[in-house]
């Protein structure tokens, strides 16, 4: 008699966490204060072109970005929309900068009616919108984030407890190994060269490529993965490993361990009970960080 297979329970109410690629996309940011400043940094780091609409004076860091990022940030020194509007729909009708012309819209102003009108207009135009501190009027959340080079970690409570997300984010950030960027760079370089030898998606070769990459990462400690930045190490892994249907370990290619393992051990011993899984999480991120396809809503 065959065993009945069980599956995880579906628990509704979660957000879909995505790495949203905004390189070259147009983003409208309404507001010039502290909250807008917290959004602006993330948007510029993502490579978006930001159109900022706000009267002067601007929050100091925003003013600095306006002066130093002219190719990526355009400031319109005025309020947004139609101040003489008779209806909420007309309030968000900005003839020069309609929300439908943008890939993303954010409001960070102390004007509830304008924010609601912008939210309604954006959703009508099918443009993703975020109204600061009003979860029902957000199609997405920023969450609490930490970045180490290409590694990005976000903690979200779906708008329910932002401060809790920050506390968890800080705990995770303190547990990330110091050389994690070397591990990601090494794995990323190996994966790029492997794809050149074994291109394609979905076929037998693609499945073998993914399996070999996973097995290779499982055979290396996180503190050893930085050695993959060496072209000679990658050549051996590919020539003597991939081509021969083998998984090689660091000792097989003369790779010396680094210092991350000890750091991970120190952090795990000092961390809460749920954090020992972080080392495995970061190792997985090293494989997946270069594997984010362009997301378009």
UniProtKB/TrEMBL annotation:
Membrane-traversing stretches: 273-292
Ranges of residues in domain Siroheme biosynthesis protein Met8 C-terminal: 177-247
Catalytic activity: precorrin-2 + NAD(+) = sirohydrochlorin + NADH + 2 H(+)
KW Transmembrane (keyword) present: yes
Gene Ontology BP annotations: siroheme biosynthetic process
Tree of life domain: Eukaryota
This protein's UniProt keywords: Membrane, NAD, Oxidoreductase, Porphyrin biosynthesis, Transmembrane, Transmembrane helix
First-tier enzyme category under EC: oxidoreductase
Entry EC number(s): 1.3.1.76
All copies of domain Siroheme synthase central, residue ranges: 148-174
Key word Oxidoreductase present: yes
Protein name, entry field: precorrin-2 dehydrogenase
Organism: Apiotrichum porosum
Gene name for this UniProt entry: MET8
